[in-house]
TrEMBL record:
Keyword 4Fe-4S set for record: no
Name of the protein in its database record: Glycosyl hydrolase family 115
Molecular function GO labels: hydrolase activity
UniProt keyword annotations, A-Z: Hydrolase, Signal
Record has tRNA-binding as a keyword: no
Signal peptide, first to last residue: 1-19
Domain Gylcosyl hydrolase 115 C-terminal: 791-950
Any single GO BP term: carbohydrate metabolic process
SUPFAM superfamilies (alphabetical): beta-N-acetylhexosaminidase-like domain
Originating organism: Wenyingzhuangia marina
Lineage: Bacteria, Pseudomonadati, Bacteroidota, Flavobacteriia, Flavobacteriales
InterPro entries in the cross-refs: GH115, GH115_C, GH115_sf, Hex-like_dom2
Length: 963
């Protein structure tokens, strides 16, 4: 049978299968199997008595082979009509497959695996067939996974349709595939939640891909389900926003799920496979309140259970509000627990009555989301066979995982994780920028704590979350291969090499990782420093344009460099790869770059307006141009691939202020002065104009800006320049085309030595009639310390977590470096995570750092920066012990509560920060010790401030790298 999906029409063609001889001799071979070479052209055979999915997979494989070779294999169900070479697709249990393979020769363990497949080449299985390549599954999904894995091997990406990744063309196709038995998947139910589809998938489907339905319907879901199978996934939580009709509204949706063997679930807010937003009619049914309206709510759920009796589904148990809100009608946690307990009992009763008298045999999930976690912690008892599905905090940090007792539950544990989110403190629905290293860290932590039953990724509109979806599903399918964090780098490079080519894949992977890293510092959607629910206007960012090397310019430069790298790669790509490259790389990178530049230029305009610089007007134009660039990029997205994705990309989801063209008020520019001079001032004292202090052996560069105010022209020059001071430019001209110049200063240390190691100096800068003497200071405090030593400079010392001088482990706990994760890209994590917290610090692991200082003060501040993870389990904490020199140990807890202001700031900046006051009683070496208390704490870096800064800093990734 072959299935063609044209809107709501399902056309079925079938032929008769003739049983194969039971006397066939089995003879395996390791020789190559020729799909297409010279005169040898393989056919495809599947059993019409087999599963419908075998038919779908067979014809899709034929199409995939055609994409690679231009040869379309014929698909057969009649064994007698096949001759030569044949690819055989089907169940290991089938009568047809018995003609090619003896089940008795297969390991019993493999036969008992679910969703598994084998590859085997057999010679002369019949008089007509000289060679057969077998794809035999332990079940229908296993067979499909084997087929689509073969498609990937021959050069057809899982993203061939969804991202227009072209198939790798070949003039011949020969398989040299040894006998292979796949593993059983690591996680039982692996899939996606299509969510917040209002801005992409739904309008695209309704107006472009599936206009006959005017919605996300069976034709769209067929493509979604095919993608899931190609990613070796098996579960869907369907789209459920008000813009979309409920999944069960269109009978074809359910039929597609059945044909593709996709398990149907529903979100945390949709018990019993219902879609409350579309299906609960308050005018007809009353309030969604189990206390006051139990009869109608019960019937609402029971009707769906009856309807879905034979479906492959995972039933969401419990109750929240109609849509992502707390349960109605309860006035306390205690009352909520009481009502929810009754709800769960009643729901299991209807499952027992209508589906299986042994309710423990029906997959059920209790999603511990938002306020439900508090109810669970408050004593709610969930039956043992129900899977506890833990959730992240919507921003990538899992709120809790199974403790030792919960890990013993028959139903096991799972995770619902976000790669896209609508809500407070701010949405991120536009670009998918969650750092793969964070996804890896959190999901592998879940895996190690035995949460292996259900993994669901909220992908929003699927696009542009392609890579993160691929990573998540690959981890869910084979978690063991991801136990080393370096696996992320390897996976990303392999993905982009397979997607594009070996030559450019490594560079594309590096570009994408830089994109993720810059977004880890601050997502594009968060660059307005605004919040939502309630929605606030945009604010000035925390980046400092006048100090710390100009943090604003550093971030602009990083994105400009990334855009340039994208352009260089695109020039080298063949034309057929450019649409995929635009979707997977160019649009997200350039979109993020322009969103950042929009706000960075805006801040420069406002900062410079306060100094009455003429250049403020230019930066305003650049900010507005960055907005127009996003408009043009989005228009291009909706026209690529001959308009295939028209309606998919919206640059303003929910129309929040962050997406608007910024209004920049420059009315403060009203200066009678002609010109101006601005000196970089990081942590120096004002009153006298100093550049930040230079330190012996240091390669630091500091700047002075010269600029026009009301003048139209001015000459400038640097005078009285010491011979040992390097300068980027000694003189220049300012005019209407160039209203400012930045002069960079650094020290030539050889010349400095020849001049007698001076401790100070002076330069004079003249701009038109204005002149300014600027003092220079040189410190030799650390000239006898290794260049790798951690030192205080200009009242600040930056300590990377990985730069310890000692790492002492205990018998069962240690600090381990996790490369790739964090702002420093090398956090140090307290492990092993399966261990309990330490009650005595001396029994735990300890990190030792040495910091060299030149200041004596009792008012220094030690800022500890960690990744804002939550406690591993419901009763846990996120603590470390901190000891400064010989002072007593202070316990620091990074734990946050609910949706507090602290938590909001933590997730917006991906930093948990805690400050301690410390004393520097002497100059020279200071010792910092960090003790492991709770497993899972991930320390990123530490900042020592020896003087309160008058100039706030953001200390972003580029600052950390450059300083």
């Amino acid at each position: 049978m072959r299935y063609f999906f044209q809107g709501l029409t399902l056309l079925i063609f079938s032929t008769t299968v003739i049983a194969c001889s039971s006397n066939t001799k089995y003879k395996a071979t390791t020789a190559g199997f020729e799909i297409y070479k010279d005169q040898n052209k393989a056919a495809i055979l599947y059993d019409s008595k087999g599963d419908d999915l075998d038919s779908i997979a067979a014809y899709l494989l034929s199409d995939d082979i055609f994409k690679v070779t231009g040869y379309q294999p014929k698909v057969h169900t009649d064994y007698k009509n096949v001759e030569g070479s044949v690819i055989v697709i089907g169940s290991l249990q089938s009568e047809m497959m018995a003609a090619f393979i003896n089940k008795k020769t297969i390991n019993t363990t493999f036969l008992n695996q679910t969703e598994s497949y084998l590859y085997k080449t057999v010679e002369n299985p019949s008089k007509k067939i000289n060679k057969a390549f077998l794809i035999a599954g332990t079940d229908a999904r296993g067979t499909a996974f084997g087929v689509f894995d073969l498609s990937k091997k021959i050069g057809v990406s899982p993203w061939n349709w969804w991202a227009d990744v072209p198939a790798k063309k070949s003039i011949k196709l020969v398989l040299n595939q040894p006998e292979f038995y796949s593993k059983e998947p690591s996680v039982s139910y692996r899939g996606i939640f299509i969510n917040d589809e209002d801005w992409g998938l739904q309008p695209w489907a309704a107006h472009n891909y599936e206009p006959e339905t005017g919605d996300i319907g069976p034709k769209t879901y067929a493509k979604v389900f095919e993608l899931l199978l190609r990613l070796k996934a098996n579960t869907i939580w369907p789209a459920m926003h008000p813009s979309t009709k409920a999944f069960f509204h269109y009978p074809g949706n359910r039929k597609m799920a059945e044909l593709y063997h996709i398990a149907l679930g529903s979100s945390h807010a949709e018990p019993m496979l219902r879609n409350n937003v579309d299906e609960w009619d308050e005018h007809k049914n009353g309030r969604f309140n189990y206390k006051t309206n139990k009869e109608n709510v019960f019937k609402y759920w029971e009707d769906r259970v009856k309807e879905a009796k034979d479906i492959d589904g995972v039933y969401t148990i419990g109750m929240r509000g109609v849509h992502d809100s707390g349960m109605e009608g309860v006035k306390s946690k205690e009352e909520a627990v009481e009502v929810l307990s009754k709800v769960i009992a009643d729901q299991r009763g209807m499952i027992k009555k209508h589906i299986n008298s042994d309710v423990t045999k029906v997959p059920q999930a209790f999603t511990v989301y938002k306020e439900v976690l508090d109810l669970y912690k408050n004593g709610l008892e969930v039956p043992e066979d129900i899977t506890l599905v833990w959730t992240d905090d919507n921003y990538g940090y899992i709120r809790s995982l199974s403790n030792k007792e919960e890990q013993k539950r028959v139903g096991g544990g799972g995770v619902y994780y976000h790669a896209s989110y609508w809500g407070r403190p701010h949405d991120y629905l536009w670009l998918s920028s969650t750092n793969p290293y964070l996804i890896h860290e959190e999901m592998m932590k879940a895996y190690e704590l035995n949460n292996k039953e259900i993994w669901i990724l909220n992908v929003g509109d699927i696009k542009p979350a392609e890579y993160n979806m691929q990573l998540f599903m690959d981890m869910a399918y084979d978690a063991e291969s991801f136990k080393n964090p370096l696996a992320v780098k390897k996976h990303k490079e392999a993905f982009f090499k397979e997607t594009f080519n070996e030559e450019l894949g490594t560079e594309i992977a590096a570009i994408k990782q830089k994109y993720y890293q810059l977004a880890f510092e601050r997502k594009p959607e968060f660059m307005g420093w605004s919040q939502t629910e309630r929605t606030t206007p945009i604010y000035k960012t925390d980046y400092n344009a006048l100090s710390y090397g100009d943090e604003i310019q550093q971030r602009i430069d990083a994105y400009v460099s990334l855009e340039n790298r994208v352009d260089l790669v695109e020039e080298k790509l063949p034309e057929e790869m450019k649409s995929a490259f635009f979707q997977l790389v160019a649009y997200p990178v350039k979109g993020a770059a322009n969103m950042n530049k929009k706000f960075m230029y805006k801040d420069k305009a406002l900062t410079y307006a306060a100094q009455s610089r003429k250049s403020a007007y230019q930066y305003k134009k650049l900010a507005n141009q960055s907005y127009q660039n996003i408009v043009a990029l989005t228009k291009e997205y909706n026209t690529i691939s001959n308009g295939k994705w028209k309606g998919m990309m919206d640059m303003k989801p929910r129309r929040l202020p962050v997406y608007d063209n910024p209004e920049i008020d420059l009315s403060t520019i009203n200066d009678k002065d002609l010109v101006g001079i601005s000196v970089e001032d990081t942590l120096t004292v004002k009153g006298v104009d100093y550049l930040p202090t230079f330190y012996v052996k240091d390669k630091a560069t500091y700047f002075v800006d010269v600029f026009l105010k009301s003048a139209n022209h001015a000459d400038w020059s640097v005078n009285q320049l010491p011979k040992w001071l390097g300068v980027s430019q000694k003189a220049g001209v300012l005019n209407d085309q160039k209203t400012e110049d930045r002069i960079l200063f650094s020290i030539n240390w050889e010349a400095w030595k020849q001049a007698g190691n001076p401790k100070n100096g002076e330069i004079k800068i003249e701009v038109g009639e204005l002149s300014k003497n600027i003092q220079l200071l040189v410190s030799d405090s650390y000239q006898n310390i290794s260049t790798s030593g951690i030192v205080e400079k200009n009242n600040l010392a930056l300590v990377y977590a990985e730069n310890f001088v000692a790492n002492n482990s205990s018998n069962d706990q240690s600090w381990k470096v996790s490369k790739g994760l964090g702002h420093s890209q090398a956090v140090v994590q307290a492990s092993a995570i399966e261990k309990t917290s330490k009650s005595k610090l001396e029994n735990g692991a300890v990190l030792t750092y040495e910091i060299f200082t030149e200041t004596i003060t009792d008012k220094a501040t030690l800022q500890l920066v960690a990744i804002p993870t939550h406690p591993l389990t419901t009763d846990g904490k996120v603590r470390i012990g901190v000891q400064w020199n010989d002072e007593p140990v202070t316990i620091v807890d990074f734990k946050t509560y609910g949706r507090s202001s602290e938590w909001k700031q933590n997730v917006l900046r991906n930093k948990a920060r805690k400050n301690l006051k410390v004393s520097l009683k002497k100059k020279g070496k200071q010792t910092l010790k960090i003790y492991a208390v709770d497993a899972g704490v991930s320390l990123d870096y530490v900042v020592l401030n020896t003087k309160e800064s008058k100039f706030p800093y953001h200390l972003g990734t580029e600052t950390i790298i450059s300083r």
